[in-house]
Amino acid sequence: MSDIRIATAEDQVLLDKEAKYCSYGDTVHYIDPPRIFSRCEGSYVWDTEDQAYLDLQMWYSAVNFGYANPRLNNALKQQIDTLPQIASQYLHKGKIELSEMIAVDAKNKFGLDGRVHFNVGGSQSIEDSLKVVRNASNGKSLMFAFEGGYHGRTLGASSITSSFRYRRRYGHFGERANFIPFPYHFRGPKGMTKEEYGSHCVQQFARLFETEYNGVWDPKTNQCEYAAFYVEPIQGTGGYVIPPMNFYSELKHVLDQHGILMVCDEIQMGFWRTGKLWSIEHFDVKPDVIVFGKALTNGLNPLGGIWAREELINPKIFPPGSTHSTFASNPLGTAVGLEMFKMTSEVDYGAMVMAKGKYFLSGLQELQKRFPIIGDVDGLGLALRCEICTADGFTPDKATLDYMVEEGMKGDMVVDGQKLGLILDVGGYYKNVITLAPSLEISYPEIDLGLKLLEQLLVRATKR
Predict the structure, then answer these.
(1) Do 219 and 185 share a domain, yes or no?
(2) Total domain count, the chain
(3) Structural domain of residue 13, as residue ranges?
(4) ∠404-151-40 over CA atoms, to 5°?
């Protein structure tokens, strides 16, 4: 293992300027000194010393289709030369055609008419969705959400995000959500199958509606105090927790019985991360609202949005001016989004992602057999998790994972004569989960390389 890395003189000048002039409010330095990166391509980024790092988190799943994807980059370049800018109050072809593509796809999959509303990113689109559901429910401001759920850090989004630390210094926007346990089977009660635990969680939620004294339901008027349930079909920041396949259909049945909308946050899992356009498709339910962002433009341009059922978003109920963003539906973003849809429709993209995910997961399972500190591995498509624990295989071990992340960023591992670093993301309720979100375009040799690099980090962790 190498000694602590020291920043170059050129990098140190930049880091000194960053320390003086840059807000730390949107910055977290996970390593010291922080790396400064200079270029990227495919599954790799390079720092200013031209050291390559294999990236297995791809900007929190914003770059699903690989860094500097030539086809998507070219779509952006072409749009710059034609219509790079136009106020969002005016129409352009890209906005209309991308809206149609998303809405027609939803109609084909869910049998529901709906409309698409754009904004500049995930958190902003969550805010718009809150307006839609509060408006449709005659101003109800209360929402259900999950323990371990993450929906953003704007005021409204943080109110439905389960981590208090994101709200602690700012108070509440409206009301804090009622956070419901998520079926996290690895840390759930023993003696239940995954499906049994999923049903148990639904049954516990359904208890809230048994009597008015459980606090959310008025049986005399058949009204619930809560407007919607915000769900990440697969939890992202919570540690890529994958629920049992029966869970959402059973939950949606309870919601429909009581007039509660299901809002699916697909910001991190959307656009083929799990082998489907939307991760909720795996669970055989019809969402009322879908929120999306991140990989729509492969990280090239800020663009997010929502799809909502026609009854919730038609112009009579959600009229012009209900919400607005200067850069919403910008032509650069919609051009890349359209090209992404075309690119992924030309092959069986879902089958490709599922095959790669199965291969990657099998490699993680082999590592789990050899390293007792891996308590759990799981995955759906190329959304994969590896939970790091103490030697008992269960007690969360954040310190060891932090060590592995720092070691990966040293850039001193060698595989087949090539010196490399490894970029990992940390998630989970106890911050002890490697959340793996590699490029969907990752090759099988690159998956093998990622597994070899993970093995080296695990060896270092167990020998330190």
Answers:
(1) yes
(2) 2
(3) 9-68+348-463
(4) 50
Q: Which residue has the higher pLDDT, 354 or 34?
A: 354
Distances (CA, A) of 297 to 11, 80, 158, 339: 30, 15, 24, 9
Supply the DSSP string of 413-452, one letter for each residue: EEETTEEEEEE--EESTTS-EEEE---TT--HHHHHHHHH
Q: What is the CATH number of the domain that holds 120?
A: 3.40.640.10
Number of residues that make up the chain: 464
Contact between 228 and 263 under an 8 Å Cβ cutoff? The reply is: yes
Do 384 and 361 sit in the same domain of this protein?
A: yes
Q: Distances from the Cα of 413 to the Cαs of 51, 234, 456, in angstroms?
A: 11, 32, 8
Give yes or no: residues 304 and 319 share one domain: yes
Q: What is the residue-averaged pLDDT of the chain?
A: 95
pLDDT higher than 80, residue 380: yes
Q: Do residue 247 and residue 367 come from a single domain?
A: no
10/226 Cα distance (integer angstroms): 55
Choose between 175 and 247: higher pLDDT. Answer: 247
What integer pLDDT is reported at residue 1 of this predicted model? Answer: 45
pLDDT tens digits for 197-248?
999 999 999 999 999 999 899 999 999 999 999 999 999 999 999 999 999 9
- Residue 3 domain flag: no
Return the amino acid letter for 199: S
CA 153, CA 25: separation in Å to the nearest integer?
A: 11
Q: What is the pLDDT of residue 2?
A: 47
Domain match, 260 and 181 both = yes
Q: Which of 302, 321, 345 is the last residue of a domain?
A: 345
Q: Are 162 and 309 in the same domain? A: yes
pLDDT band (50, 70, 90) for residue 173: low
214 phi, psi to nearest 5 deg: -85, -5
Q: Is the dihedral of CA 299, 275, 126, 312 positive or negative?
A: positive
Residues facing residue 434 across a β-bridge:
386, 426
For the chain, first and last CA: distance in Å? 10
Q: Which of 345, 365, 400 is the last residue of a domain?
A: 345
Kindly state the tokens that stand for 56.
Answer: 């297995």
Judge if 204 and 288 occupy the same domain: yes
The whole-angstrom separation of Cα 195 and Cα 381 is 20
Which residue, among 400, 403, 377, 149, has the nearest Cα to 265 in the 3D structure? Answer: 149
Q: Is residue 246 part of a domain?
A: yes
In a domain, 4, yes or no: no
**Residue 85 DSSP class:** -
Task: Write out the two tokens for 68.
Answer: 């500097």
Q: Which band of pLDDT confidence, cut at 50, 70 and 90, is reported for residue 4? A: low
| Model pTM score | 0.96
315 and 242 in one domain?
yes
pLDDT tens string 12-48: 999 999 999 999 888 778 788 899 999 999 999 999 9
